[in-house]
Request: fold
Amino acid sequence: MKKNIQQSLEQLGYRKTLTRTMILNALESYNRPVSVEDLVEKCKDLNLTTIYRNLHVLEENGLIRSMQFTSKAKHYVIAEQDETKHFHYIRCLECEKVEQIDFCVLEKIKTSTNFTIVNHSMEFTGYCPDCSQVDSKN
Ligand SMILES: [Zn+2]
Ligand SMILES: [Zn+2]
Reply:
């Protein structure tokens, strides 16, 4: 587990329970937003209720961030501790695969509008290479 996550857990006065450590490790192991089903798959020893309860606690305390993709259940990622480093995502409308985009146009928009931007969200949807191929064959 990344040092900063571990430190945040401690700062919040958390007991580093096995459950929370397992969930955070699982989230970290995926390089994309993770659904509760993904977590069930990865943390076979945990039941759904336990996972939901701990996700809630972790989110309340800002250690993880949830996002709601249109028509999809919530997905979770480890919260970026460094504001300047954050990600956006692109989701396939066919197979629902999600990929991380690790650059952002935020700085460009800041300079071109002179706004003090406090929040932004971007979601991209489309068809992944696999699904576009299937489409063109049909
Ligand atoms: Zn796809
Ligand atoms: Zn951004």
Q: What stands out?
A: Residues 48-60 form the longest helix (13 residues). The pocket of zinc ion (ligand 2) is lined by residues 86, 88, 104, 106, 120 (CB under 6 Å).
